[in-house]
Protein 1
Amino acid sequence: MTSAPAFPVPNAGERDPDGRLVAVGFDSTPAPGIIHRNPWLIAVDGSDNALRAVEYAAGQVGRLNSCDLHLVHVQPWLSTEAAEAELAQRGIAATARARDVLDGLGLSWHLHVTMGEPARCILEQARRLPAAQIVLGSRGLGMVESLLLGSVAYRVLHLSQVPVLVVP
């Protein structure tokens, strides 16, 4: 009899000054005192575009064998009660396919789930690591759509202090 994989246990959490849970972290292989080697930050929103970015980064890291993969998933702001009950679950659900790809390749990962404006949260997490590179998928918006709707990739690309790879 096989059992379903256990829900990952958070290894980190962050609260705002009001005590609201605003971020939670997970590791594929929890270990105390992890030293981050050349961390790559990959933005994951559950889309096929984000999955392509994960697959591309995994292929590159597999060849280099000297990088740690950090997935970041950003949720919109939730109420205090919703954050406590749902933030971790939403992040785990939205990143399931990406984590499965990395697990299937035998690559360890770190997952950071946070709330807020996506580009700002991605850049803040990259600064905290500090990330050597940011990898994210493109939604494929045209020039006019990007100007009207805004683009997370565009904002990250132009505001980042580290190299950014946008995977189409």
Note: The longest strand covers residues 21-27.
Protein 2
Amino acid sequence: MLNPTLYNSPALLDAQRHQSLRLKQGFKAVCCAQGVNVVFIAANEFEHVCKEYPIVFVPAGEDKLGRKQMAPVAVMGLEQGENLYFRTSKSGRVGWQARYIPSFLRYYPFTLGQVDASRWAVCIDEDSEAWSKTTGQPLFDEQGQPSALVREMHAALQNLEREIEQTRVIGERLRYFDLLQPRVLTTTLPDGSSFAADGFYTLDEKRLAELSKMQLAELHRNGSLHALSLHKASLSNLDALAQRRWKRMKT
């Protein structure tokens, strides 16, 4: 799964096309997240993410049967192009103002792309600032074989894709039981003014209360109930997000 606001020019990693590319020494993936206001997350990240960011759901296209899919995201800004966790100091140093960084950001500029129904391959963002042709870690050795860096990334991304598949299952069940409703995220700034952001979905607690014991048991078994409880808890971070926005406006 690609984060469309993060990967500007995704391409399958190719031994001939990318033979000369090297990952710059000391490159920080978060350097490219300045304008990213939401990032896809996997269900196994919820326990970490909910302590730092609001977790909401967004439409994520359709599955093979034409059913709408919903995907969880960590909210990092209240409008397009705004990331309130990204900070650049006066000296030019990039900082990230949260203890946990979601996997999609940590693995950037690498990701997985689906080659066909059963195969996935490593992709890179060709336009990323991560690349050099002179210094850094090579993507391929002299024989054109994937370097240790690429092999490690491939293994890590495969693990992430397995977690994403479980997350898709959770999203599908939440959609099936109609447990997500559109919501405008409204926050109040310290001066009393309010700010609203739409396009997000959150738990419909009334609908959840209407489910049968059998339906709740199913949601418990596949991890959906646990994910919903962490999603609900994470919404308390909206106030902290408003405080970040206020401080950013005042500087």
Note: The chain has one domain: 10-250.
Protein 3
Amino acid sequence: MPLATIGEDHIEAFDSVIHTNLRGAFVVLAETVSHISEGGRIIALSSSVLAKNFPTYGPYIASKAGVEGLVHVLTNELRGRKVTVNAVAPGPTGTDLFLKGKSQEQIDQLSKLAPLERLGQPEDIARVVSFLAGPDGAWINGQVIRANGGFA
């Protein structure tokens, strides 16, 4: 993910992130709609970084806010089909992609941002997705679940 300040000299970085995260989500959601059966589940991915407003994260935050908007709209577009549409917004999670290029000091600092004082693990996020995809998630619709240990 290219980080970039909000300025004319970063339009290409902005376009790249929007193309990947927002347009990519739009294309996948559109394809899903054409194939999903009644009673199905659609789960998009956002990010809890939306709450932080970190400098240089403008394009990324804009793209993920757009994904959340698509979830809310698609929830209403699928009215009557008994399909749920939700998003999961992980906080800092100890994946290879997240850890790549970060020093141990940076990882330790990020681990302390959530009140639970640890990075999420992929299993933490998978459990939320599993809940939403399973029968217990049947009444959850049009929501963004912030699976982030309190990172807000």
Note: The chain has one domain: 8-145.
Protein 4
Amino acid sequence: MSQLKACYKDAITEAGLDEAGRGCLAGPVVAAAVILPADADHPLLNDSKKLSHKHRLLLRAWVMENALAWAIGMASVEEIDRINILNASFLAMHRAVDQLNTKPSLLLVDGNRFNKYPQIAHQCIIGGDGKYRSIAAASVLAKTERDHLMEQLHHDFPEYDWVQNKGYPTKKHKSSIAHIGICPHHRRSFNMGIQLDIDFV
């Protein structure tokens, strides 16, 4: 059994919310919403950042099979540049909740801020993906979904090594940007540590 809590409040339907990709230089921000049964648990369940790739994929399949409801939401690079990454993260979370086939009574949100979702209460929990099962499950889905997307985008833009860095600002990623410029999947509003008056590749 994991060391995570099953719920924040007893006897209500809770959905855990988390996102992946806020600190990346490229690609969308991806969020997930997950409603787990009270007795659903897995010994590996934890914050996705603390898991190996193999364990994340194993847990992704477990969540999809055992959740009462789950959904993915995204906000595009264009939306990130227009409304900023924080608001885009909230937008992606709202879109995930929009797609749940069961309406929760409470949203458990990883982090300390959130834009209220209409007619559903929420609770922000700092480090929530390491405290509550539903948030950890959402963390796993968001992370694996975004990683898969960046691996697909890598085939069109292999020079940025997204199959390895998933869009995060590694030394190689920033070096590639400095030498060849940015592509349409890069977030133009982000400080990439280089001059950005360059054209798309």
Note: The chain has a mean pLDDT of 94.
